[in-house]
Design a protein that fits this description.
Structural class: alpha/beta
Helix content: 25-40%
Largest sheet: 8 strands, parallel
Order of helices and strands: HEHEHEHEHEHEHEHEH
Bound molecules: pyridoxal-5'-phosphate
Strand order of the largest sheet: 7-6-5-4-3-2-1-8
Length: 224
């Protein structure tokens, strides 16, 4: 067993029951994904549309591709045939467009609402106020091709565990409120709280995460 395969198996064995791993393969080649695939893992995360499309065309059909990066509106159509879940819905405009493009090809798509609590200006996502407005608007129940499964968020990129935990609790709070607020007509459950990356996923799980997105710890450093 090579390094990547070994590492992904160790991480999965260490995750509590009910926590799903998204192996973040962005910037890593198809061969690296196949090393993880060979262990039985099927859920991979990508952050660039073109990269996701070319990998999806090249790699086995039973891979479940998650889109985790900022999704430009002009790339929605390209990824739609391939993507199982979009974690990074960060505007109402994008949400509506994803619904339109999914409906256009006759499918439904799982999405997570990306929320923004970290103190970094470069991060995308709904602020708590915008999030409340979105829930109150009723739109989450008006898009038949979109299944709102939960929330994705990132903590501040700092060394202070108290600070990181506070961010994770704020994200969890938004997720809990979403679960109380929406009942989708088709009975779809809101069940996914995506938070935690290589350096903070254990803390994220302690704070209630049930989906972690791990890249570097599995595949090594990315070469940009
Ligand atoms: C790249 C990325 C990750 C993975 O980060 P690592 O530190 O390599 O584990 C997780 N989530 C998002 C949104 C990312 O863009």
């Amino acid at each position: 067993m090579d390094g990547t395969g070994q590492r992904i198996m160790e991480i999965k064995a260490s995750l509590p029951e009910g926590v799903t791993l998204v192996a973040v393969s962005k910037f890593h080649p198809a061969e690296a994904i196949m090393e993880a695939y060979a262990t039985g893992h099927r859920i991979f995360g990508e952050s660039r549309a073109n990269e996701l499309v070319s990998k999806a065309n090249e790699l086995p059909d039973d891979i479940e591709w998650h889109f985790i990066g900022h999704l430009q509106t002009n790339k929605v159509r390209a990824v739609m045939p391939y993507v199982a879940c979009i974690h990074s819905i960060d505007s109402e405009r994008l949400l509506r467009l994803v619904n339109t493009e999914a409906a256009r090809i006759g499918r439904t798509v799982n999405i997570l609402l990306q929320v923004h609590v970290a103190r970094e200006e470069t991060k995308f996502g709904f602020t708590p106020e915008e999030f409340d407005g979105l829930m109150a608007s009723g739109i989450l129940n008006e898009l038949p091709a979109v299944k709102v499964r939960g929330v994705m968020g990132m903590a501040s990129n700092v060394d202070d565990d108290d600070r990181i935990a506070a961010d994770f609790r704020a994200i969890k709070n938004m997720y809990d409120r979403l679960k109380e607020t929406i009942t989708l007509d088709d009975g779809t459950v809101c069940d996914t709280l995506s938070m935690g990356m290589s350096h903070d996923f254990r803390l994220a799980i302690e704070c209630g995460s049930n989906m972690v997105r791990i890249g570097t710890t599995i595949f090594g450093e990315r070469e940009y």
